[in-house]
Amino acid sequence: MKITETDLPGCLLIEPRVFGDARGSFFESFNQKTYADAGLDLRFVQNNVSVSQRGVLRGLHYQWPNPQGKLVSVLEGEVYDVAVDIRRGSPHFGRWTAAILSAENHRQLWIPEGFAHGFATLSERAVFVYQCTALYDRAADAGIRWNDARLAIDWPVAEPLLSDKDASAPFLDDIAAERLPGYIA
């Protein structure tokens, strides 16, 4: 497996070793020992799957308190995946990183606790998988507006299909400090 640090420390692009032949391909999408040996001692308690059509944008989502780390990947199709550092006091606060995740490239993105997450569907259909380190907590569910000018995310869709919740999410600067995670150096 190949692990590449993104321009946001802690967010990692992971490329598993893929074995293929005329029949198709095989790869381990997660092996606790292999990931731990690479410095990622992860324990997942919930897996989620979402199916989206072209132009759907989901996010930017996070939980606070009770944050979730997420290992995300695509089983079918292609997405533009984004992580945003929203930890108060972080030297990277408000910065984002992005990666193309697809069924073809088998890439995963590790999004640590304290980051917001979202993606835009680039293919006709995408099946997206989230492995989460904490259970979903409705009371802690939160979001940031996808088109927040402060973040200036370069989304590849101009007029995305959004949920009402995502369309009306607050801008980062309008979120009370106690509703954002803190940075621990």
Explain what the structure shows.
By secondary structure, the protein is mostly beta strands. The chain has a single domain (2-17, 27-165), classed as Jelly Rolls, CATH 2.60.120. The protein contains two helices and 13 strands, in the order E-E-E-E-H-E-E-E-E-E-E-E-E-E-H. The strands form three sheets. The chain has a six-stranded antiparallel beta sheet, with no helix packed on it. Strand 1 (2-5) and strand 2 (12-15) form a beta hairpin. The longest helix has 6 residues, at 32-37. The protein is globular. The two termini are 28 Å apart.
Give a brief outline of the structure.
This protein has a 6-stranded antiparallel β-sheet, with no helix packed on it. The mean pLDDT is 96.
Main traits of this protein?
mainly beta, Jelly Rolls, 5-stranded antiparallel sheet
Give the topology.
Elements: E1 2-5, E2 12-15, E3 19-21, E4 24-26, H1 32-37, E5 46-53, E6 57-63, E7 70-76, E8 78-85, E9 96-102, E10 108-111, E11 115-121, E12 125-132, E13 141-143, H2 164-167
Antiparallel strand pairs: 1-2, 2-10, 3-4, 5-12, 6-11, 6-13, 7-10, 7-12, 8-9, 8-11
Mean pLDDT: 96
The largest pleated sheet is described as: 6 strands, antiparallel
Please tell me the total number of domains: 1
Number of strands: 13
Enter the CATH topology name.
Answer: Jelly Rolls
CATH superfamily descriptor? Jelly Rolls
Our estimate of the beta-strand percent is 35-45%
Q: By helix and strand content, what is the structural category?
A: mainly beta
